[in-house]
Amino acid sequence: MSSPIEQLQYLMTCLRDESFGCVWDKKQTYKSIAPYTLEEAYEVVDAIEREDFDHLKDELGDLLFQVIFYAQMAEEEQHFNFDDIARGIVEKMLRRHPHVFPDGDIARFGEPSLLTEEQIAEQWQQIKAQEKGQSKEGVLSDVPVSMPALMQAVKIQTKVSKVGFDWPDVAPVFDKIREELVELEEAMKEKNDLHVEEEMGDVLFAVSNLARHLDVSPDVALNKTNIKFRRRFSRIESLVSAQNKNLTDCSLEELDRYWEQAKREGL
């Protein structure tokens, strides 16, 4: 009997079959599937944040299906197949973990490593640099421009910090945020929309840099705040509804009182 992964691969082959496959699946391309990949990745993160392991299993399956989809399209075009993907990541992980697999040999697993976590992180970056030939390319050449903006900002800041372009501690980062806020206020006084947008970007970049210095993911932190806000606002809606009123019937002061009540309730 074939393994579950083999069944999944065969299922994808059937969906893409020229004669009998699904019309929707057959017309998809790498670019048309890409937005779904991002969506599935975020749904994985959401399940993790909620510690919903039943849904996490399902969401990981959806994300795996995206990989199978890309692999099928690539195999049809004779670029690579799923086995090539798996083989490539195994080889990469062996290269990047010499402290676990000496000489890149998986058969030598089990020998103790004396490296610290910091040394391992430094080793990882050195190996990545060697693989990508970063000595000949720009430091930021491998940061995808399509990456979500906050995530990309942190990636950029992390990259340049590796070559010494970074503040030594968090204090100057707070100063930079204050400086950018002042510049944003000045831009607002000019009533120049493009300048306001530029300065708003600078504020967000500085705040994301603060998150990096604090070893906090700005995406994860903001997502948690979004969840908290939704929870509290849902409570406001229920409180307003209990008064047989609509949200638009309430003053801002009244809504704010309900908000504070939701906070006191631990929401």
Task: Count the domains.
Answer: 3
Mean of residue pLDDT values: 91
* Multimeric state: single chain
Order of helices and strands: HHHHHHHHHHH
Which secondary-structure class do the elements indicate?
mainly alpha
CATH class of the largest domain: Mainly Alpha
Per DSSP E runs of 2 or more residues, the count of β-strands stands at: 0
Bulk shape: globular
Describe the sheet with the most strands: none
How far apart the termini lie comes to 50 Å
CATH architecture of the largest domain: Orthogonal Bundle
Q: Helix coverage percent of residues? A: 55-70%
In the CATH hierarchy, the third-tier topology of the largest domain is known as Helix Hairpins
Q: Using only CA atoms, what is the Rg?
A: 25 Å
Output the CATH homologous superfamily of the largest domain.
MazG-like
Q: What is this structure, in a nutshell?
A:
Helix content is 69%, strand content 0%. By secondary structure, the protein is mainly alpha-helical.
Question: Can you put this structure into words, describing what you see?
Answer:
It is an enzyme of class 3 (hydrolase). Residues 28-101, 177-232 form the NTP pyrophosphohydrolase MazG-like domain. The protein is mainly α. The protein folds into 3 domains: 4-80, Helix Hairpins (Orthogonal Bundle), CATH 1.10.287; 149-216, Orthogonal Bundle (Helix Hairpins); 220-264. The chain is built from 11 helices and no strands. It has helices at 4-15, 23-26, 30-49, 53-76, 82-96, 117-132, 149-161, 171-190, 193-213, 218-242, 252-264. Helix 1 crosses helix 4 (53-76) and helix 8 (171-190) runs antiparallel to helix 9 (193-213).
